[in-house]
Design goal:
The protein has about 475 residues and is α+β, with helices and mostly antiparallel strands. The protein has 4 domains: about 1-105, Beta Barrel (OB fold (Dihydrolipoamide Acetyltransferase, E2P)), CATH 2.40.50.140; about 110-175, no CATH class; about 200-405, no CATH class; about 415-480. Helix content is about 30%, strand content about 30%. It has 12 helices and 24 strands. A hairpin with a 2-residue loop joins strand 1 and strand 2 (about 40). Helix 8 (about 335-360) packs across helix 9, helix 10 (about 425-435) runs antiparallel to helix 12 and helix 11 runs antiparallel to helix 12 (about 465-475). The chain is elongated and about 90 Å long. The protein starts with a helix and ends in a 5-residue tail after the last strand. This is Ribonuclease R. One of its GO terms (molecular function) is RNA nuclease activity. One of its GO terms (cellular component) is cytosol.
């Protein structure tokens, strides 16, 4: 209500309800609101707005005009937090960097705060703001607790920053994801969509396979290649079969939007019976899937024809990336008849996808990226494994890209598009300067693609490709999502 009252006053709208008038009277007594006849205005000594906290500073957002926003220092917030409606007193000193100081929180969005203790003071864990409190004497450095937003008294003790799992709680708290442990849907609340059963194509005889990391618990996609007809099948687990639109499960999954992977556990978007069982393409189990059937024109390196339909499939084998890498290197080791049947189509499919990849990279980029996988034992870090893109990764990537492109054609103009615009001239010029400092003799070419390809070629000569690719990626325009296909 307060924000609405002050916004009305700023807009010179004075049609207040009786409750609003009673509140205004209190602020007139405190000389925060000034009454002129039938009109009201906020005392020029003060400014009322919404607090927005950035990384190194805060903004007091004007209720009406963004041009009147004021920058605040983090040590001048007086216990106020992000999105609070605050009363600030202006500082009329031309030599001072501080233009206003927070006097009071008028409407607080947060009843509690997550803090840690350092040298006898509370500091907020997200913003790292020191709080004026005398209640820290009984705590040790690094203690983490939840306190109330008024008197800064303890609500709940969480642990210490030295605790192995404390980061998991902090991350979930800061990003408001603790509800994942609290809001759970029982297994019997998901509903199967019976309408699709009769129209599904039975593909259980086709030897589909999945290729995933060793640690994968859920298998989202599977592939099969019909060599004789040059036809690639890409199967995607049909989650919609079990999740009825508008159901409690659908609403909660929409709220979660994704699965969260923590060092010691996983918080799935869907109940584990779905994500790790019924909606996972488990080996030798009948599963529902959306299937792309792609007729490949191998000579011209394009999809000649595509179909998308609901099907029932059986994953004949789960493979790890490492195992398939050995197969693609013709190190077949021991295998059974079922595996041989799959290897017989994976090997020619890999050769085909290599050609598609080479053609695609004439317009795109090949970045050498790696991913660190942490191996834990009893919640403690035991080892770090560096996983790089290998032949098996690239095989799956190309299959998924072909399916994604066909999916986008079927969606047409309706959809959410990931937009990755070209970097501007300033960013590319800086990139050239940076790589030259590292000894890579590069120069600007006719266009962005030629320039980046040239930089990568030169970096190969100095065995600096991985490091230079990191710099190139940093120079690119950040991807964004849009309902408009901007290319």
């Amino acid at each position: 209500m307060l924000k609405n009252i002050f916004t009305k006053i700023e807009n010179k709208i004075f049609n207040f309800s009786q409750d609003e008038k009673n509140i205004i009277e209190d602020y007139i007594k405190d000389e925060i609101i000034v009454k002129n006849g039938e009109d009201f205005e906020i005392n020029s000594k003060y400014k009322i707005g919404v607090l927005k906290i950035e990384k190194n500073f805060a903004i007091l957002e004007d209720l009406v005009n963004p041009i009147k926003n004021i920058k605040l220092e983090l040590d001048a917030l007086n216990g106020a937090f992000n999105n609070d409606l605050i009363l600030a007193k202006r500082v009329f000193n031309p030599r001072s960097k501080i233009k206003a100081k927070v006097i009071k929180v008028l409407e607080g969005k947060k009843a509690e705060i997550l803090v840690y203790v350092e040298d006898g003071s509370f500091f907020t864990l997200k913003e790292n703001i020191e709080l004026p409190s005398k209640n820290t004497k009984t705590y040790e450095n690094g203690d983490v607790l939840i306190i109330d937003n008024k008197e800064f008294k303890e609500i709940k003790f969480i642990g210490n920053l030295n605790d192995a799992k404390i980061d998991e709680f902090i991350s979930l708290y800061i990003y408001e994801e603790l509800y994942r442990d609290e809001e759970k849907i029982e297994v019997d609340e998901f509903v199967e969509d019976e309408s699709k059963k009769e129209t599904r194509v039975d593909l259980r005889d086709l030897p589909f396979c999945t290729i995933d990391p060793n640690s994968a618990k859920d298998h989202d996609d599977a592939i099969f290649f019909d060599k004789e007809n040059s036809t690639l099948f890409v199967a995607i687990a049909d989650v919609s079969h079990f999740v009825k639109e508008g159901s409690k499960l659908d609403i909660l999954a929409f709220k979660k939007s994704s699965t969260i992977y923590l060092p010691s556990r996983t918080l799935p978007m869907l109940p584990s019976i779905l994500s790790e069982n019924l909606c996972s393409l488990k080996e030798n189990e009948d599963r529902y899937a959306y299937v792309f059937k792609l007729k490949l024109d191998i000579k011209n390196l394009k999809v000649q024809h595509s179909e998308l339909f609901c099907a029932t499939i059986k994953n004949h084998r789960n493979f790890s990336y490492g195992r398939i890498d050995r197969v693609l290197e013709n190190k077949l080791d021991q295998y059974n008849e079922n595996e041989k049947r799959i290897f017989d189509y994976l090997l020619p499919l890999y050769e085909i996808t290599k050609k598609f990849r080479e053609d695609r990279l004439k317009k795109g980029y090949d970045f050498r990226t790696s991913e660190n996988r942490l191996k834990l034992k009893n919640s403690l870090l035991e080892n770090i494994e560096v996983e790089k893109s290998t032949a098996s990764h690239q095989l799956i990537e190309e299959c998924m890209l072909l399916a994604n492109i066909e999916a986008s054609k079927k969606v047409g103009a309706l959809g959410i598009f990931r937009i990755h615009e070209e970097p501007n001239f300033k960013a590319i010029s800086k990139l050239i300067d940076d790589v030259n400092i590292l000894g890579v003799k590069a120069k600007l070419k006719d266009n962005v693609h030629e320039t980046i390809s040239h930089i990568q070629e030169e970096s190969n000569k100095l065995f600096l490709r991985d490091e230079i690719d990191e710099l190139v990626i940093q120079s690119l325009t950040q991807a964004k999502y849009s309902s408009k296909n901007l290319g």
